[in-house]
């Protein structure tokens, strides 16, 4: 079957930067037109029936010094998550082997730190080397990096580093005050300069406006080299966090966000990330139609629940999707 033609006003590459006004115009289109345009661009760059499966594993949980209002792992919030030490490498490798056996191709390791200390980085480097040797792509999220740390991770064979921008720069102070949006950009720049691929996305449903959502996506699209992987998370409102009572984002607005992400970032993997357990099969299918082509695969994210592997396998079967 031939793919639908790409709308002439929406080329797959742009010579000029995106503006927030332009992104808002995309958001405001009739829903069917927006999703069709996103799907057309998606088909130019990816197999529309192939979905990447990544696994996420917490190698160090809780006790983070930052004050991110959405996070269950902040030591400043009264959540049920307790501080734990860095996991032993044997436990990490066992988890990696298990998810590889079940079909995941990327293993993402997360630690609740503001930034890793050198003594901790030694152990993490060992984890990267050994997970990489198992034939899995490797990804880390360790917080902000100091000079020289990204180079150490690159030498260990790290494929991706995750460092989300979370939200638009204009809204960022409403969500985090213990570090700045510029601090996040600085780490992303260090990772890119070290030759590691970037995984960076955001969280929607934190009380931001549509313009803020447009602004977040424009930040990524206008980077000299946009992220290769862009997770779009729907806020999981955790009891004990300042955003515990935040109402969920309208589901069609969430799909619109996925579609605009696909149009602005035509060659990135757009990952349907946190909050998927609360999404119906029909909503997930709409997100895939709008250009999402990656999920986290496994019963648990860092601290939040995720759909079971069997549920994901059944959904893939219903939709005729293939795992990559």
Mean pLDDT over the residues: 88
Enumerate how many helices there are, as a single number.
10
Low-confidence stretches: 1-12
Number of domains: 1
Give the class-level CATH name: Alpha Beta
How is the CATH topology named?
Answer: TIM Barrel
Overall 3D form: globular
The string of secondary-structure elements, in order, is: HHEHEHEHEHEEHEHEHEHE
Largest sheet: 10 strands, parallel
Structural class call reads alpha/beta
Distance between the termini: 21 Å
Q: What is the number of E strands?
A: 10
Question: Strand fraction band?
Answer: 5-15%
- Would you identify the CATH H-level superfamily? Aldolase class I
Residues in helix, % = 25-40%
Q: Rg from C-alpha positions?
A: 19 Å
What is the name of the CATH architecture? Alpha-Beta Barrel
SSE topology:
Elements: H1 20-27, H2 31-45, E1 50-60, H3 89-101, E2 106-111, H4 118-133, E3 137-141, H5 149-156, E4 160-162, H6 181-193, E5 197-199, E6 202-204, H7 210-221, E7 229-234, H8 251-264, E8 269-272, H9 281-289, E9 294-296, H10 309-319, E10 322-323
Parallel strand pairs: 1-2, 1-9, 1-10, 2-3, 3-4, 4-5, 6-7, 7-8, 8-9
């Amino acid at each position: 079957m031939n793919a639908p033609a790409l709308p002439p006003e929406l080329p797959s590459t742009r010579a000029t930067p995106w503006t927030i006004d332009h992104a808002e115009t995309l958001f405001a289109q009739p829903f069917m037109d927006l999703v069709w345009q996103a799907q057309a661009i998606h088909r130019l760059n990816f197999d529309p029936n192939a979905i990447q499966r990544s696994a996420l594993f917490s190698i160090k949980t809780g006790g983070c010094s930052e004050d991110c209002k959405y996070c269950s792992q902040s030591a400043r919030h009264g959540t049920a998550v307790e501080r734990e030490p860095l996991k032993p490498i044997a436990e990490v490798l066992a988890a990696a082997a298990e998810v590889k056996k079940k079909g995941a191709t990327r293993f993402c390791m997360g630690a609740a730190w503001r930034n890793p200390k050198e003594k901790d980085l030694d152990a993490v480097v060992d984890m990267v080397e050994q997970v990489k040797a198992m034939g899995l792509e490797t990804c880390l999220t360790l917080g902000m990096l100091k000079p020289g740390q990204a180079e150490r991770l690159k030498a260990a064979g790290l494929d991706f580093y995750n460092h989300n921008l979370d939200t638009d720069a204009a809204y960022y102070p409403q969500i985090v005050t213990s570090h700045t949006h510029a601090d996040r950009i600085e780490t992303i720049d260090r990772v890119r300069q070290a030759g590691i691929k970037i995984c960076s996305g955001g969280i929607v449903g934190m009380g931001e406006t549509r313009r803020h959502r447009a602004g977040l996506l424009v930040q990524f699209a206008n980077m000299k080299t946009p992220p290769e992987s862009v997770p779009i998370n729907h806020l999981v409102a955790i009891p004990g966090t300042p955003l515990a009572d935040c109402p969920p984002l309208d589901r069609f607005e969430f799909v619109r966000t996925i579609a605009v992400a696909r149009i602005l970032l035509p060659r990135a993997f757009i990952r349907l990330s946190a909050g998927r357990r609360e999404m119906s099969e029909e909503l997930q299918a709409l997100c895939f139609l709008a250009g999402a082509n990656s999920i986290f695969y496994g019963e648990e994210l860092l601290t939040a629940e995720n759909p079971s592997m069997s549920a994901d396998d059944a959904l893939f079967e219903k939709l005729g999707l293939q795992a990559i």
